[in-house]
């Protein structure tokens, strides 16, 4: 690589973890979660999903297939996180075992190609004190760059809940990244046709989670937090003006020193919005320093050509370089193949 080359970094890619699947296979909580998902998906989408998981099994676990796909896509580095199935139903002991098995598997997998893969861990956010210990272990023992969480900690426990205060403080202390990835939506059976479970549900959940983070003042209390959200941040970046209008005009929404758009300009999102004009809008809404590449490998709602789609958006060269990899390095920390450490004068101003 030349001194000016910036590697392409895909921050949104998943790994299947058979050890976790085996661990929870006979758990009543899993059966209940599957029933909830099946009702929200509807029978047609449920059938498609079952068939897809079988077809994707090899791509979710086979290292050679992953590297081949990365090479075809022009992706140099992937941040790898486990498939984001929710385990918030798990009791304390089982939750500890799930996270340990997941983190060990992801770390071992990425260690086989440390030049191409960086690991992202898991925590049991439904048990906040346990999640703090798991976060420390993921970062300090397994060398992970951060952890992936869902859009809530558990039913009725949102990401701005005071019970998670120590978790967020520890995230900031460690300089770890937190990747927010939804799974379906609490709208339930209203989404049970046409795969609305995903196409509407996932963006809604992410918009809700980010809205609670912004209006709660979490980012003002912890200004060094590194938070990233999948799928372009959901629906929120497309309509930030409405959130700002509420902040300006309603006392119950005037909860922070800065409006939501200013709050959210300090989080990262991925580029997985499919169309060139949508990516241009996302960059305008979030800022060129806050968008990273994302493929959602290997799922069908992902894309196989995130770099080509970035180039097709017609953005200026500095922005392309930032989205291609520079922003991911600021989010995740030093990455293999980069010519230098992230600059203190990065265009986003967040280190």
Automatic annotation (TrEMBL):
Keyword rRNA processing belongs to the record: no
InterPro entries: ACMSD, Amidohydro-rel, Metal_Hydrolase
Signal peptide boundaries: none
Source organism, top-level taxon: Bacteria
Pfam families the UniProt entry points to: Amidohydro_2
Residue span(s) of domain Amidohydrolase-related: 9-333
Keywords: Lyase
Coiled coil spans: none
Protein name stated in the entry: Amidohydrolase family protein
Organism per entry: Streptomyces lutosisoli
């Amino acid at each position: 690589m030349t001194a000016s080359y910036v590697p392409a970094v895909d921050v949104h890619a998943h790994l299947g973890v058979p050890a976790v699947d085996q661990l929870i296979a006979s758990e009543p909580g899993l059966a209940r979660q599957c029933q909830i998902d099946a009702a929200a998906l509807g029978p047609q989408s449920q059938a498609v999903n079952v068939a897809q998981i079988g077809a994707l099994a090899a791509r979710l676990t086979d290292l050679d297939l992953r590297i081949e796909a990365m090479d075809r896509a022009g992706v140099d580095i992937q941040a790898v996180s486990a498939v984001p199935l929710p385990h918030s139903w798990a009791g304390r002991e089982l939750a500890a075992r799930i996270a340990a098995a997941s983190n060990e598997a992801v770390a071992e997998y990425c260690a086989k190609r440390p030049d191409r893969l960086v690991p992202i861990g898991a925590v049991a956010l439904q048990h906040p004190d346990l999640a703090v210990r798991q976060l420390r272990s993921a970062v300090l023992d397994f060398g992970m760059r951060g952890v992936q969480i869902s859009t809530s900690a558990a039913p009725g426990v949102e990401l701005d809940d005071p019970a998670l205060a120590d978790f967020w403080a520890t995230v900031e202390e460690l300089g770890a990244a937190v990747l927010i990835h939804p799974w379906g939506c609490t709208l339930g059976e209203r989404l049970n046709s046409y795969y609305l479970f995903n196409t509407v549900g996932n963006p809604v959940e992410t918009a809700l989670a980010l809205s609670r983070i912004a209006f709660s003042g979490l980012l003002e209390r912890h200004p060094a937090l590194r938070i990233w959200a999948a799928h372009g941040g959901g629906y929120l970046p497309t309509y930030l003006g409405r959130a700002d209008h509420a902040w300006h005009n309603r006392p119950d929404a005037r909860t922070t020193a800065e409006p939501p758009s200013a709050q959210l300009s300090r989080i990262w999102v991925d580029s997985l919005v499919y169309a060139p004009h949508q990516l241009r809008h996302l960059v305008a809404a979030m800022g060129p320093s806050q968008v990273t590449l994302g493929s959602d490998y290997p799922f069908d709602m992902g894309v196989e050509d995130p770099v080509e789609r970035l180039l097709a958006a017609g953005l200026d060269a500095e922005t392309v370089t930032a989205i291609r990899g520079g922003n991911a390095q600021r989010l995740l920390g030093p990455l293999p193949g980069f010519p230098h450490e992230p600059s203190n004068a990065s265009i986003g101003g967040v280190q």
